[in-house]
Structure formats: structure tokens, C-alpha cells
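Long-time lurker, first post. I've been practising inverse folding by hand and with some scripts of my own, and I keep getting stuck on stretches where the C-alpha cells seem ambiguous. Below is the full C-alpha cell string for one chain I'm working on. Before anyone asks, I'm not after the true native sequence, just a reasonable design that respects the backbone. If someone could post their per-position residues I'd love to compare against what I wrote down in my notebook.
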């Protein structure tokens, strides 16, 4: 019984809700709401290789320039620049962050 419980909690990459790809993913969360960032970090963080967060598009740009991310979770409605405009800018410059 104890071994069965350990298997359920020690192998998050086999979680059928997320799939095995997540265990190797690096994720950047861009959202101006701390509660949403916290929720996503707590939910996805234990299941992925690396997770970082940004409170706005300026911070997201700096992080994207410094590190490679497999997935970017992007809020659209934020103060300053919205997510769609920021994404269009990133695509225009090639959306090619430096690999770390």
C-alpha cells in the first residue's frame, strides 16, 4: 500500500492530465495578476523542468532574451502593452531567444 501511494506522487510526468512532454518543458508565464501566476506556478511547476514568471511584457522580453522557453503562457489583457501586441513584436523579430 505504501509503495502504491509513493508511485502516485513521485512520478508527475506520467500524470494523464498533462502528459509526459511536460516533464522536460521550460515554461514562461506572463500575467499581471499575481494570483494567476501563483496558481500556474503551483500547478505546473512540480511537473516541468523549469518555470519562470513575468509580471509584464517588458520583464517577459528580458527573460525571453536570456533563456529558451518551450512554452509561453501569455495573458492578453495587461496594463501597458497587451499580450497580442507583444506576441506580434516577438514574431516580427523572429521569436528566437538565445538558448541557455
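-- Answer (accepted) --
I ran through it position by position. Result:
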Amino acid at each position: 500500500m505504501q509503495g502504491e501511494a509513493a508511485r502516485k506522487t513521485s512520478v508527475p510526468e506520467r500524470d494523464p492530465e498533462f502528459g509526459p512532454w511536460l516533464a522536460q518543458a521550460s515554461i514562461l508565464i506572463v500575467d499581471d495578476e499575481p494570483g494567476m501566476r501563483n496558481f500556474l506556478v503551483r500547478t505546473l511547476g512540480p511537473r516541468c523542468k523549469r518555470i519562470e514568471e513575468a509580471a509584464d511584457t517588458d520583464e517577459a522580453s528580458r527573460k525571453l532574451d536570456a533563456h529558451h522557453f518551450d512554452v509561453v503562457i501569455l495573458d492578453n489583457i495587461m496594463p501597458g502593452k497587451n499580450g497580442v501586441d507583444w506576441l506580434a513584436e516577438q514574431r516580427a523579430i523572429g521569436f528566437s531567444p538565445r538558448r541557455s
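A couple of notes from the structure itself: Residues 1-13 have pLDDT under 50 and may be disordered. Residues 26-100 form a domain with the Rossmann fold fold (CATH 3.40.50.2300). Happy to go over any region you disagree with.
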